[in-house]
Design goal:
single chain, 414 residues, alpha/beta, eight-stranded mixed beta sheet, six-stranded parallel beta sheet, 38% helix
């Protein structure tokens, strides 16, 4: 079986959860099941400079992983008007002749790239994984309004409030176009029941969706930190440093704990690329006001176990719904309880009082209170550790995807 994976970036350039899982899945299918194919990651000039005469670039030493350089992407309509670049991609797809095309994101690629691949690989089965809500939400795919409120789903009036410079025609045309593009896919996968519910509530047919959890490599858990005094007061943040992941909420909660004399330590790990100067100024101010917090910058996958060993809890204080953040599975793989915002896909993955704790969203005082309770409640940390179930492994995820691919091909051959 030959597969083509399309993703909006490569984890060596931007190690987000979608990029990491998609590349890991591709390699697992190749190495354990013998699938052949290509992992094609779209990039722009902010990641790589273009090369003359081609839109395809190598990445690392892998011969089956490439970068597709495409600029001029329209983030509102999810379109890619670089028709010259797309035309040069056609011979590569024709030579590959994929049996299955698995799209892990439409950012940078755009609907035109999907249409091109469909034309030059007419016999291929198409699968899409909705790792976020971009197809139904033009506001960065987060169902979060421009003034920071949670959105239950797109409506014409609601979208116009977020995009006052757009007309109603733009809003409606976007919805119709994207629903039409993805209607031609054989399967749409979502990693959580919550995400499925958001799409169905937005008018997408429920029978077209399958919940397919992501997976993480099966590796040894990091040892627990030695705590002679018995206090489990070390908190770790792992992820992008941006407004939506809630790093500001965590810093403000840490500040309040210090003000109340609660001994603790917060360590933030993650890159801060592509953030606005205004946000970074706000972040730096919050960091300076939290004496127990420390920012360690970006990390690579090979460092994760060592970083996990230094913390007792993983905190995910996101202010948007999330979908199925990979960091939850990584925390559980290392048997660290998770403190998370009690909403969306994260709340679905983390069972309050069983393997983690839920905190109120966008509420530093509420988060601080949950962190205080985590520190001071005798036996709580150990009980939550014992409640952690092993996450879905990458091998399990690959087996499930392969079964789905084979089923799609079998239907096509009838």
């Amino acid at each position: 079986m030959r597969v083509l994976f399309l993703c909006h970036n490569h984890p060596s350039l931007q190690p987000g959860g979608t990029e990491v899982f998609a590349r890991n899945l591709f390699r697992e299918l190749r190495d354990r099941h013998g699938l052949e194919g290509l992992f094609l990651a779209a990039v722009t000039s902010s990641h790589r400079e273009p090369l003359p005469g081609t839109v395809v670039q190598a990445v690392g030493q892998a011969t089956d992983e490439m970068l597709l350089w495409l600029d001029n992407f329209d983030r509102f309509f999810l379109t890619q008007p670089d028709t010259y670049g797309l035309a040069t991609l056609a011979p590569l797809i024709e030579a590959l002749a994929p049996d299955v095309v698995h799209v892990h994101h439409s950012l940078q690629l755009g609907t035109e790239t999907i249409d091109l691949v469909r034309r030059v690989a007419p016999k291929a089965r198409f699968v899409f994984t909705a790792h976020d809500f971009f197809p139904i939400c033009p506001q960065e795919g987060q169902l979060l309004t421009t003034d920071g409120r949670l959105c239950n789903g797109p409506t014409l009036d609601g979208c116009l409030r977020c995009f006052p410079d757009r007309g109603a025609t733009d809003i409606v045309m976007r919805q119709l176009e994207l629903r039409d593009v993805f209607a031609d896919f054989d399967h749409i996968l979502v990693p959580s029941e919550f995400a499925r519910g958001r799409y169905v509530a937005s008018g997408w047919s429920p029978e077209r969706f399958s919940v397919m959890p992501n997976g993480v490599p099966e590796l040894p858990a990091a040892p627990f930190r030695v705590a002679p005094d018995g206090r489990r007061d070390r908190f770790g943040f792992f992820g992008h440093i941006n407004r939506f992941k809630g790093s500001l909420m965590l810093l403000r909660a840490s500040h309040q704990l210090s003000e109340r004399g609660v001994a603790h330590r917060v360590t933030l790990h993650g890159g801060a690329a592509y953030q606005s100067e205004a946000f970074m100024a706000e972040y730096d101010t919050a960091l300076a006001a939290a004496p127990a917090a420390h920012y360690r910058g970006a990390y690579v996958a090979e460092e994760l176990a060592g970083l996990m060993q230094q913390v007792d809890w993983v905190v995910i204080p996101s202010i948007w719904w999330e979908n199925a953040p990979l960091v939850v599975q990584e925390a559980f793989r290392h048997r660290r309880p998770v403190i998370c915002s009690g909403i969306g896909g994260t709340a679905e993955m983390v069972r309050d009082g069983i393997d983690g704790l839920h905190a109120p969203v966008k509420d530093p005082a509420g988060l601080a209170e949950v962190m205080r309770r985590a520190i001071e409640t005798e036996g709580l940390w150990q009980r939550l550790v014992e409640g952690i179930a092993p996450p879905v492994t990458l091998a399990d995820a690959a087996d499930r995807h392969l079964k789905l691919y084979k089923a799609a091909l079998a239907v096509a051959s009838v």
